[in-house]
Give the backbone structure.
Amino acid sequence: MTKRGEQMRAEILAVLQNAHGAMSAYDVLHRLQMAHPKIAPPTVYNALASLTKAGRVHRVESLKAYIACRCDGTHQAAVLSICDECGTVEERTAPQLVENLSGLIGETGFQPQRHVIEVHGICSSCSSET
Ligand SMILES: [Zn+2]
Ligand SMILES: [Zn+2]
């Protein structure tokens, strides 16, 4: 990894950590372009992909967006709860749940490789604001 690449990944991580909710790759690009007008989209998309692979960032599949990992980044699958009102995404880890799912799916000989566990609803602060 080049020094430039490291720098880019650190900046992307900071953007996502400060974001209110999940951000699309385009949102991240747009934010970075404010500081680096000449930044090329593939640079940002590649850095996002490598952060995702490293577990520092999670892709929220149902939103086609990204969040920074709030855990240690070494866990298996993230269980994401997504507020449809304010867009907040909360992350939990549930190794037992992932194991149970793998067992269930594996009964037919299917080999699970990547789990996507996303739950949509209303977060506690939105539901108390009525
Ligand atoms: Zn995580
Ligand atoms: Zn909410």
User: Anything to note?
Assistant: Strands lie at 57-60, 65-68, 78-83, 89-93, 117-121.
